[in-house]
Design brief:
This protein is an alpha/beta fold and about 120 residues long. It is about 25% helix and about 10% strand. α1 packs across α3.
């Protein structure tokens, strides 16, 4: 059910991200379309990101694809959401310089993040 679009990446990284996602069963679109579900962004302030936000898409960092590939399954987007995404709980300002994942899910205890 994932139809993804990439924004802000150059080859060879762009091709690697696309191949990894398609290998996991996602569909790829070069531009945001009515059936797109996820925008994988290098930067959350691109024209594609603005369009995806307007249309209720999920904006995630590239770590989402790499971690899905590493585990061999689709992981929840929550820890990878970028500001301004439809499901982001932030106000959409101030974290554009943060590396993905920009918004890790809150967890109890210290050291709950990825290794």
């Amino acid at each position: 059910g994932v139809v993804l679009v990439l924004s802000g990446f150059e080859n060879p990284l762009r091709s690697q991200l696309r191949a990894a996602a398609v290998g996991l069963g996602a569909e790829y679109r070069p531009d945001w379309t009515s059936d797109s579900t996820h925008l994988v962004c290098a930067f959350p302030r691109t024209p594609k990101a603005a369009r995806a936000r307007q249309l209720g898409g999920l904006l995630v960092g590239p770590a989402w694809i790499w971690d899905c590939q590493r585990t061999g399954r689709r992981l929840p987007c929550g820890p990878y959401l970028l500001d301004g995404s439809a499901s982001s709980s932030s106000d959409g300002e101030g974290a554009e310089d943060a590396p993905p994942p920009a918004r890790p899910a809150p967890k109890a205890g210290k050291g709950a993040g990825p290794p």
